[in-house]
Amino acid sequence: MEKIAENKIIEDLMPQQFGKKGMIWVISLLVVCVFGFYAYCRQLYYGLEVTALRDYVSWGIYISNFVFFVAISLVGSLITAVLRLTNVHWSTPLTRIAEIIAVSAIAFASLIIIVDMGRPDRFYNLFIHGRLQSPIIWDVIVISTYLVISLLLLYFPLLPDLKIMIQYKERNGKWLQKLYVFLGSFWKDKPAQFKITTKAIHILSITIIPVAFAIHTVTSWLFATTYRPGWDSTNFGAYFISGAFLVGAGSVLIAMYIFRTQYKLEKYITSEHFNKMGKVVVLLALIYLYFNINEFLVPAFKMKKSEEEHLMGLFTGEFSYIFWFAISASMFLPILILVFKKGRTPKWAFVAGILVVVGSWFKRYLIVTPTLLHPFLPMHDVPKNYMHYFPSWEEWAIAGGSLAGALLVITFFARIFPIIPIHETITETDTHEKV
Amino acid sequence: MKKYNIIQLLIVAVLLMPSMLMAQDVDKNNLVLTLKYFNDNNKSHHLLVQAKSKIDGKFQQIADMPVRFYIGLEPMVENLLGKGVTNDKGEALLVIPPQAQAEWLKSPIQNFIVLSDGNAKFEEGRGDLTITKAKLKIDTVEGKIITASIIALIDTVWTPVASVDFVVGVKRLGGLLNVNETQTYTSDSTGMISAEYKRDSLPGDQKGNLVLVASVIDNELYGNLTTEIEVPWGSKSVYTTNFDHRTLFARRGHSPIWLEMLAYTIVLAVWSVIIYLVFQINKIKKLGIE
Amino acid sequence: MKPNENSRREFLAATLLAGAALAGCRTNPFTPDEVTDIKPSGKMVKLLSVDGDIIEVDEAFLKPVPELPVVTNSEARVGIPGKKFAMVIDLSRCKSVKKCQTACNHMHHIHPGQNWIKIYPMQDSEKTAPYWQPTTCMHCDEPPCVKVCPVDATFKRKDGIVLIDSDRCVGCRFCMAACPYSSRVFNWEEPKIEKEIAAQPYSCETSVPQKIGTVGKCDFCPDMIRQGSLPHCVSACPNGVFFFGDILEDSVTNGSETFRFSELIKDKAGYRLMEDLGTKPSVYYLPPVNRNFPFEKEEKNA
């Protein structure tokens, strides 16, 4: 990193007010959110009847969206913890991006699971009647734990930045200033304070890894603890985690590109970052591909009767288009783009990131739905519309609204807090200088 | 405006016509009431009525049909025994009440009548039943032989009756399990039947007791009679349950120990770290305020 | 120590209560030793004896019991003591008349279009014989649905029955995903039920009334069993396909025929569905051999 003056760094990295583009972005997200909320109000009023879910396909895009959110949230632990612990310093500017993606994704994961409930009014039953034997309770425990840890991991590195920002009272305005003071007025840049945060971040980085593994493993167990073809797999935990790391890294690529271009951060999120993240994504895509081969080749080799319909539906049947699209978009194409040096430019990496994320969303859809359309006993004695599934507009609106909501949280976060850690960037530049 | 209204009225009237005609056309379905008499262990006795109707060529059970039970030859107010309403199976039941006493003691042969006034869909109906008072006896003799006999009140004398069909069995949930291959037994001139008990180690209650039942079912003269006796011929039933065991499918608070240990250890470990870190924030705060 | 204590306590409870629960099917209400079994209701009824005397009897000893007391939620969660229910379905007798389904739907006020009993046209492979296979809830001894329920809304009782508490269910539908027999249905909309029925308090034993946003399924009709009757499907079937009984009595009946359960299963080579999954169902099937009628694919009664 070239040497940049401290003042310049602060000037560059301070949160900026929304420009015209920013306003359009926020308003369109708000519109999608409000529309999703309207759809949810309808669902609250009429019941899950408004969805296309029926007795056979009783889980649909809400659950695939939930899995998607949980998957994306894993990125927080990857970038912050894994790379921090392995002493990789190039990732420092990306940590906060990753962490806020994690926080907003996990928050919306818990929201979408409430949306999927038939009786959200009885949500409290999970606490007063919770059964430890149920993987859903495990999920409730690990998700809330992960949310708290992620928030802490967001907060500790933010403290020195808060002090910097409190100095710009004029610029902040009344409300933001109040918020900064509330959150970090006690930070005085004392060495003793730094000692504590450094240690705390270190502890958190270690703690978050098993917890992150736990959330996604437990999420995979919601499926793998059943007998159904396509879910009944010992590979599922690892398969989900590898997929989660991939989609999380893909989403970081997208966020990096957008923040870099919109906030003019080329000096901080450099092409070198895209180069390195690109390599990481290739590695993760290869790992995910490996688990996919395990997940599909092994049962396809045996072709047990119960698995056959399910697998053939994916390979050549009614889901084959989505299946091959998802496989190519989330793995083959990104690998193809990012494996070459020329592909690891910001623009191409951005494209690869979008492919990964979109492909992964459809991959989650394929994990949930086709399995439910292939029960052990044939589908019978139900109305015709119970035998197919295509999400209703309410489902699309609610799922879309939740995605927009997550983006909105990230957007507002970037408006309020420096999306690239100012203090850490300054120290990194200093150490760089000394070296 | 007025004209418009008349046209509207006409349209409504024309539209309504078919349904009005239909309403007049509707024929009430006939109601068939079948009355049965049950003597339960020679102590209490009850009447059962089954309400049916032939609709589209098939007999259907008619629920929610009010019925009245009478004793005697005519359904007079003083002979009214009670009222009932048929259930979902089209059945209504009446335990014979004290007010039947006078009529009951009059004659060895009794008449019962059931009446229904019908309703909007069904015509009124009537069912008649004549029974001769009879009693069953059941006993056992050496060698696991079950004997049962029937006596009927003829004039004023309890007399054994021949040629009555019996079933004999072990009382089980919802039915009688026959004691050997024979399905029915017919009484001889002394009114007796005998059946050999051939069930090997059939589970009884905790002491190994079984309830044997002798029944006469739907007899033209005597109705339904049942009597029973308890015998120690069964094997002791052993009841085991894993209801209170700690299993994955047990209720809350009964999860396996390994699961509880694992879960609580993990939760405790992680949350103590979290709580520790929250205290660290407090420490940073204190350092800042100093 | 603990398991021992438990089993001893259960043994005592079973001794005290053996048979008491099924007061309804006692034909002999007056023998003294039996009177100790049954809890008197305190309400005396006068009636005429066969001999013409006027006698007074506690209502609880009357046969049939006029009105059973309402079973509380905690009683419904434990089940009928000293019983273990099982069903035997004779595939050789089924020709998909669907009376079982109609009766079940009617008695449980199931939402139109949905069924707790399904009658599958089965053909295991191209050259094997087709047959009709009615399925109820299997009331598994190791029920996968109960394993995954987060709130104890579906539970396994002492008498082997798996029930649903629709006042507790949060509608997560994990149990539906977990059940390999597809026996669970969900109330996607407000169930179409007559107002008076919908206004009743929900009972786990009758599964009535079904509630929006919760799961429903076959309940083995414990309310009928308590009255000493058979489940609705059993008594509705004109061909006697369904047999029901208490395994501890080693007997099953379809109302007109009663068999010794162990003999029936042995003689006709009874089996359970998807034994390999380890769910240990309480429903047994008799293979579709020596059928009385040909398999007709036309669903006349659909």
Provide an overview of this structure.
The complex is a heterotrimer of chains A (435), B (290) and C (302). With 435 residues, chain A is mainly α. Chain A folds into two domains: 1-221 and 395-435, no CATH class; 273-379, no CATH class. Chain A has 18 helices and no strands. The model of chain A has no long low-confidence stretch (mean pLDDT 91). Chain B has three domains: 32-132, Immunoglobulin-like, CATH 2.60.40.1940; 134-231, Sandwich (Immunoglobulin-like); 242-277, no CATH class. Chain B is an alpha+beta fold. Chain B is flat. In chain B, strand 10 and strand 11 (157-160) form a beta hairpin. Chain B has three helices and 17 strands. In chain B, strands 1, 2, 3, 6, 12, 13, 14, 16 and 17 form a nine-stranded mixed beta sheet that branches. The mean pLDDT of chain B is 87. In chain B, 22% of the residues lie in helices and 41% in strands. Helices cover 23% and strands 17% of the residues of chain C. Chain C is globular. Chain C folds into two domains: 2-65, no CATH class; 75-286, Alpha-Beta Plaits. Chain C has 302 residues and is an alpha+beta fold. Chain C is built from ten helices and 13 strands. Residues 1-37 of chain C have low confidence and may be disordered. Chains B and C meet through strand 2, helix 2, strand 12, strand 13 and strand 17 of B and helix 1, strand 1, strand 2, helix 5 and strand 10 of C.
Condensed summary:
The complex is a heterotrimer of chains A (435), B (290) and C (302). By secondary structure, chain A is an all-alpha fold. Chain A contains 18 helices and no strands.
> So what's the overall shape of chain C?
globular
End-to-end distance of chain A = 12 Å
Mean pLDDT of chain A: 91
Count of individual domains of chain A: 2
Q: Estimate what percentage of residues of chain A fall within beta strands.
A: under 5%
Helix segment count of chain A? 18
Largest sheet of chain C: 5 strands, mixed
Q: Indicate the radius of gyration of chain C in whole angstroms.
A: 21 Å
| Intertermini distance of chain C | 56 Å
Task: Determine the strand fraction of chain C and express it as a percent band.
Answer: 15-25%
User: What is the share of helical residues of chain C?
Assistant: 10-25%
| Most strands sheet of chain A | none
Number of helices of chain C: 10
Topology:
The complex is a heterotrimer of chains A (435), B (290) and C (302).
Chain A lengths: L5 H8 L6 H27 L14 H13 L1 H11 L9 H22 L8 H4 L6 H21 L2 H9 L2 H4 L1 H11 L6 H34 L11 H27 L8 H32 L2 H11 L4 H19 L7 H27 L20 H24 L5 H13 L1
Helix pairs in contact in A: 2-17, 3-5, 3-11, 3-12, 3-16, 4-5, 4-11, 4-12, 5-7, 5-17, 7-11, 8-10, 11-12, 12-13, 12-16, 13-15, 14-15, 15-16
Chain B lengths: L1 H24 L6 E9 L3 E12 L2 E4 L4 E6 L8 E6 L5 E5 L5 H6 L2 E8 L8 E8 L1 E8 L3 E10 L2 E4 L4 E8 L2 E4 L6 E2 L5 E5 L13 E10 L3 E9 L25 H33 L1
Parallel strand pairs in B: 1-17
Antiparallel strand pairs in B: 1-2, 2-3, 2-6, 4-5, 4-7, 7-8, 9-10, 10-11, 10-15, 12-13, 12-14, 12-16, 16-17
Chain C lengths: L1 H16 L14 H4 L8 E5 L5 E5 L14 H6 L6 E6 L8 H10 L9 E5 L8 E5 L8 H5 L5 E3 L5 E3 L9 H5 L6 E2 L8 H5 L15 E2 L5 H5 L5 H5 L5 E5 L4 E3 L4 E3 H7 L15 E4 L16
Parallel strand pairs in C: 3-13
Antiparallel strand pairs in C: 1-2, 3-10, 4-5, 6-7, 8-9, 10-11, 11-12
